[in-house]
Amino acid sequence: MSDLPDDVLERIFTLLPVKQAVRAGVVSTRFKRVWLFSRKLHFGRWFTTQKGILEAMSAIDHVFRAHAGPQIQSFKLYIDPTDIEPMVRKWIEISISKGVEELELNFVAARIERFQLSRDLIDVESLRVLKLTFCEIDFPPDLTRLHLLDTLILKKVEITSDMIETLILNCTLLETLELVHCDAIHQLTLSARNHKRLKVFKLGDCSDLSLVEIDAPGLRSFHFYGQAPLFLFEDISQLKDAAINFVPPKGFMRHSSVRNILDDLANVSVLTVNSIVLESLHNHNVWIQGISPNYEDLKHNTRGLPFSYRNLKEFQLIMHGGVYCNTYDIAAFLNSCPFVEQVFIDLNECSFEGSIYWELHQKQELESFRFLCRLKFVKVKGFRFHQHELELVKFFLQKGINLETLAL
User: Fold this and answer.
1) Which of 198, 220, 299, 403 has the maximum number of C-beta atoms within 10 A of its C-beta?
2) Would the pTM of this model clear 0.85, i.e. be above it?
3) Cβ contacts of residue 47 below 8 Å, gap of 6+?
4) Which three-class secondary structure state does DSSP give residue 392?
5) Tens digit of pLDDT for each residue in 369-406?
6) Angstrom distance (rounded) from CA 344 to CA 88
């Protein structure tokens, strides 16, 4: 690098985050001023926690006042904005004036209330990536400048379903949408039939969410975490990767709802679920309530799953909390996945429940399941050699006749 001209070296160093650019100036006086032209101004959690709010605020303000470069490509900020809102706004405005393409603002450390973002700080023509945490935003109904936005991640943001529809309508290049802890959303409609670029949608922990409608023929990946709402899938024909992780319901979860969701996802090649999803497929509740069900009825409920995952190549299961899910539930699901090649199970310090029904009926029924002829790889994380964990491993060894790797 020593043979490169100064102007070339300086341009290389401007691509570094400002912290690394400052370090370069310490190493050599030749690069003493390169940080003034840095295009990546990143002030993350490490910065404010290490320096303290007052020193961090002073340092950040000094960087912006001294910045001499024509462009700020990326501005990332983690800070408590309480009592310094005008200064934070000034930093954002300077970034916008220098054509910022990636804007990441995390105000989760705020002591009082969410940071208020006006439309002039959001509707920005140069933005490609927008990540906001703990903000209130004013999305106008007539967005005109976000036509280059391809990634939008909102966490703990006060945003309504109508605002989401406005974004989808106007951000035609949007590829990734992630909504987490957005509790003002009650019924969400993702209508993206004309948005061929939308590939990834993640939705999690929106506490008041009751309905999710998705019409997105170009969608490739969908991840959900939280209380189970009603799902209505219109067109998800290109979906390849799905993750459904329900939190424990307040009451009993309707088996038919879960089966309908999994039926709609039957064409995916990678599926991740937690044990609550598998429990909800099977009628564990009758045993919990102390009612002795008819054996033939339960046999039909578990083995007669209405879907077939013929495209599934990879299955991931995350055990969650006090589980009723056991080896039979896992085997019954995999019986509907004839071409699965990889299975990952995270026991997550959970123990399988050994019910009377398992001992009397389910254990013997395992022998009747099909061979998993395509299965090559199985990993069980958190394996502790408990009896029911050994039963699970035994099942894979017996049915995975072409198994190559078993990792415990």
Assistant:
1) 198
2) yes
3) 19, 56, 59, 78
4) helix
5) 899 999 999 999 999 998 888 989 999 999 999 999 99
6) 44
